[in-house]
């Protein structure tokens, strides 16, 4: 299959023609990537990617979770075991296994992203099959050895204006410093992701607290010192380019405790003898503390709650975190966000971007909240919903109540670097498709739709994330 | 943008042509407005509306919530403060501020309603922009001075067959009496909305109870007297034209207590020393009491639960209720309605119309309940979902299980009088669009679809509300 | 209305043409019916169906629930009362009453199924109306007397390759034995539905336990004996052709108790002095026990939770179970299934098929779970959602995360034998429609879509149910 110029547009000729015109306005705009998980060392070291499997399969949990669901062992895909036990090390064998199961991805965004990557990045135009697997492997492997396929060259080729990575407060940001010092013009910023030192149930939380103290010189075992340490690290991150923070809690719970119970709670947490509800309350309180600091230092706050992390304990024991077993859960926003909103909801100098994995809240809770509170904006469809149908549902469900201008455009949220252009392209196409429908149904004039298309693709993310 | 005759129809030519034919059958039918919040004094006094801002912006929380969400102060839109503090008083300045932010409404129903109102009511055909704002303001202001723009003239121009307003049991209904006594032929009826004297957490509940006693001569501090007073007021409302009651509780909870615990609960409520769960149980019990009275006096019962009222305490303190900060919440119906349904669900002489703000219940709970229980009917998509996409989702989600004939057609639920024709027009167009799709997909014959279109636009609301 | 060859396809010419081609690939494939509720005595005895009302109306709760919702008494439709009180016995009178209310089914799947049955099975081409009711009745009644309308002839005419019925562990499966012994080639298998002896709140549970002991010779009042008895009956069902078990619990709760608390819980249940939460925990534990046995004996496990059974106590008292008053409820899967998944989720030799009545979980919970856990597959849209819009939503919501190959194709789940071809036809058309859209939007090549269409219609159900 080769990429069709009208892909993802409505097949209805009226809508398709409008979508084409709108897309022509945005197809060439630079990419703003305000939230993602690419490895900053790639840009710092600018080394060649090793091989097709290491680049495209082994680190991509979208891919290996689907294969795993159909009985393929992670060992056979080269995913490293925590115990160092044997796993497949031949990238070509991994690639062939992947090709044998390519049909599983029919109808999924992974299929679209990879088709796009194969064709536009590696010039592969034949379909991946067991028969073509070796040819395609060889072609990609060959390309990866070339200088124009190094990370910085790709960054420029992708027309990335800026990309944000995501780091823990404990990260020294050496790679970001190296990028800055290198004289390379590509703009790579960090984002402040404090979960490891803010979530008492995060693996290694206590060690993190200790380390945070050592890095900052603050007494992180006192409430005051702990907050000061976080504030200091936020300052450091901001200095290194960060414009945002990022918070991935199990729920959207927020709290606004008085000083005395806040101290007591912190002491319970630090003691290590806490109940799950203490951890939940502490995370809730910390979101409000982070909002307070954001009001001071101007970092945009991103909250994306509702994932049940590491749902599969066997897999976690054998392979570790982030192996495709994070499952979305039903999430409440109306009650959960109220303590934070009661305190900061009417601020004009604070910006809180909400993402969700619970689509039933788009129209019921999130759009009504974002269509009222000055601090709130809606992030794009997240993760599983970063897909053609998912994006379309988001616009259909959120726009009528929140409008376009309480949303912040797309982010790719990915560690799959080569897929970044494909992902932004899908988002731009779907937004143009949605706008084309509004125009074709005489709900919006085409000149206005064109302005909105550009806003969604470029201006809104740039403004919302202060990039 | 000028109104396109095919707006909101599918752009697919087959569906569009069918939709046109269906719409031609209903476009000219009189409007039935069985549920809304226009001010009866308008029809009683028949005075000119003061100015464009006072008519279209200041009272419309759809409009000012969106502007507020983007940082516009309510004071700058002329919304009165509770402390009497200064707010913008120049209607033209308010209008200009509104025009500057008109792009925020792209893709929203507010935009469609106002475009329709501007063009069909005021003859405005240019788009609202900062440049055109003054011209449009002047044109509307001029029209408002003319006799044909007085409320009664508009009522007739809108082809309203009947409109219902909504009043508290404490309301003397003087305006309704004045309308009746005036000899004017327009039919304006009231609806009985007892929330202020039935919800213990309603502002002023205790004073309301007192007033209810004074109006009725009943001892409203005894359970028996309280029920008798409500029954008496229902009788009075019915005499003044009411055909329905209207109940806006936080949840859909109903209860069916035995007499002794019911008395005890009432005494706890009257004492003022009650917990939130007592208030919830009392509201729940009162829905069942209201159903019992409806079975006796024939008033149709409307229940629309699930809004978290006044979510923003700062705003409520400064500007009062109903300022755009009511947020929908997840709502259960299957368990909540059971006590009422256990007692009255199989009655053939009782009619309970359910509205919701939780669309996830359309297909899962509401359509299955309404497709079984004789007393239940489904009201139209409510509030935020009174929109093209919202209405379409309602039909797609509810029809297959409840059919069309367990729904009751449209109501505009609005206090924005000039928008009434626009709102009914959107509803009629979307229903014709949905029916056209069924016909185009050979799921329904066109002659049947035409009959359904007329039922939805006219016959069903007239029958369901006994109008 | 006569059946249109393009019914249910998109009216857009591009999509319609692709859908036609895809449908041509699957229209003639044999039917696999892996889950349903037809009466095995029909196939065993092969007697003529008595009359149109007894065949099409009296046993179909889709039909009489809709009529009941609009005030028609069940007595007037010939539904037998538990007290043996008088009900309509004239099938023609029932049929006329049904015809008078035929408009209620506009837009519902019942309408589509019956139109299909009338035309393709009975050669009726005129619309059902009060005027045509007698003619149509006579025609159907005449056909039912003919040998080619006996159950076995219909089975063959329907091109059924295999049909599964559903029986209690207490059922001796005499009809299945008779079918097998008859020499008839039609393949009718059973499915093991243990709810009556596994759900302590099922009517007659204690008697069932007793009977289970008598049938198996096990002491079913000891935990060990009870489990052995179930295992034995599973073996017997398997021997009689069963390839699956079927579990219809109120929630998806699973548990994995240690042996000692499991025994204690069982003893509480057997004592009859248990609380609702004990019953819930027992059902939860039993799902995990059933999974364990499935891993041993290879029976595929079907779980379809989330129905609030017999919601209408008056109706249940007067007419019994299964009278259209089962109402879906909100259902959690992420937490509920975890105990079972923690223990068996990574098995490659166990297959658990999940159905739901809570569509809000398709994209949020079920597709992510099935797209990860090797044991999980997604069953088709269930019951109220076994409808054109319901099936389309399922594909739109589930495919992007779970793909097609973690779904198992269609099942008709019906006791309405004549409607089986209509139901499979709707499913095949909707799947082709969905695939045609993917092709028309250049998200999938047409040759791949054709392969998927055949997989969904035939290969996947055959494989998933081991048929």
Automatic annotation (TrEMBL), chains A, B, C:
Q: Name one Pfam family in it.
A: UxaC
Catalysed reactions listed for this entry:
D-glucuronate = D-fructuronate; aldehydo-D-galacturonate = keto-D-tagaturonate
- What InterPro entries does its record include? Metal_Hydrolase, Uronate_isomerase
What family does the database annotate? Belongs to the metallo-dependent hydrolases superfamily. Uronate isomerase family.
Species source reads Inquilinus limosus
Q: Which UniProt keywords apply?
A: Isomerase
Pathway recorded for this protein: Carbohydrate metabolism; pentose and glucuronate interconversion
Q: What is this protein called?
A: Uronate isomerase
Q: Name the Gene Ontology biological process terms.
A: D-galacturonate catabolic process; D-glucuronate catabolic process
| Molecular function in Gene Ontology | glucuronate isomerase activity
EC annotation? 5.3.1.12
Top-rank taxon, per record: Bacteria
Asked if the Swiss-Prot or TrEMBL record annotates the protein with the keyword Transmembrane, the reply is: no
Q: What class of enzyme is it?
A: isomerase
């Amino acid at each position: 299959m080769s990429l069709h110029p009208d892909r993802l547009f409505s097949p209805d000729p009226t809508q398709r023609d409008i979508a084409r015109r709108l897309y022509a306005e945005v197809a060439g705009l630079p990419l703003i990537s305000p939230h993602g998980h690419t490895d900053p060392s790639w840009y710092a070291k600018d080394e060649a990617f090793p091989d097709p499997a290491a680049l495209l399969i082994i680190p991509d949990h979208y891919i290996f979770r689907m294969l795993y669901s159909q009985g393929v062992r992670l060992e056979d895909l080269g995913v490293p075991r925590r115990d160092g036990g044997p796993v497949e090390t031949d990238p070509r064998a991994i690639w062939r296994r992947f090709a044998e199961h390519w049909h599983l991805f029919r109808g999924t965004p992974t299929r679209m992203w990879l088709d796009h990557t194969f064709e536009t990045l590696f010039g592969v135009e034949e379909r991946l099959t067991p028969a073509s697997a070796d040819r395609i492997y060889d072609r990609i492997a060959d390309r990866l050895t070339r200088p124009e396929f190094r990370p910085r060259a790709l960054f420029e080729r992708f027309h990335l204006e800026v990309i944000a990575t995501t780091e823990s407060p404990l990260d020294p940001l050496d790679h970001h410093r190296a990028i800055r010092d290198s004289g390379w013009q590509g703009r790579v910023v960090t984002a402040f992701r404090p979960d490891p030192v803010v979530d008492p149930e995060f693996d290694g939380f206590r060690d993190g607290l200790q380390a945070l103290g050592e890095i900052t010189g603050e007494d992180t075992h006192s409430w005051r010192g702990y907050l000061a340490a976080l504030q200091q690290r936020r300052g450091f991150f901001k200095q290194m380019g960060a414009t945002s923070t990022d918070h991935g809690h199990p729920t959207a719970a927020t709290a606004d405790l008085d000083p005395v119970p806040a101290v007591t709670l912190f002491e319970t947490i630090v003691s290590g003898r806490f109940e799950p509800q203490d951890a939940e309350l502490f995370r809730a309180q910390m979101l409000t503390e982070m909002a307070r600091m954001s009001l001071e230092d101007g970092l945009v706050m991103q909250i994306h709650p509702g994932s049940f992390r590491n749902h599969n304990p066997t897999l976690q024991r054998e392979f570790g975190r982030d192996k495709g077993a994070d499952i979305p859960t039903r999430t409440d926003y109306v009650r959960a966000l109220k303590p934070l909103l009661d305190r900061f909801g009417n601020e004009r100098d604070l910006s809180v971007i909400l993402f969700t994995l619970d689509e039933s809240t788009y129209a019921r809770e999130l759009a009504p909240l974002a269509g009222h509170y000055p601090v709130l904006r809606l992030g794009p469809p997240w993760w599983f919903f970063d897909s053609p149908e998912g994006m379309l549902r988001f616009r259909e469900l959120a726009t009528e109540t929140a409008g376009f201008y309480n949303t912040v455009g797309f982010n790719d949220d990915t560690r799959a670097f080569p897929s970044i252009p494909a992902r932004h392209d899908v988002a731009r196409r779907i937004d143009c498709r949605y706008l084309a429908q509004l125009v074709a149904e005489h709900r919006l004039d085409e000149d206005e739709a064109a302005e909105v298309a550009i806003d969604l693709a470029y201006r809104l993310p740039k403004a919302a994330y202060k990039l």
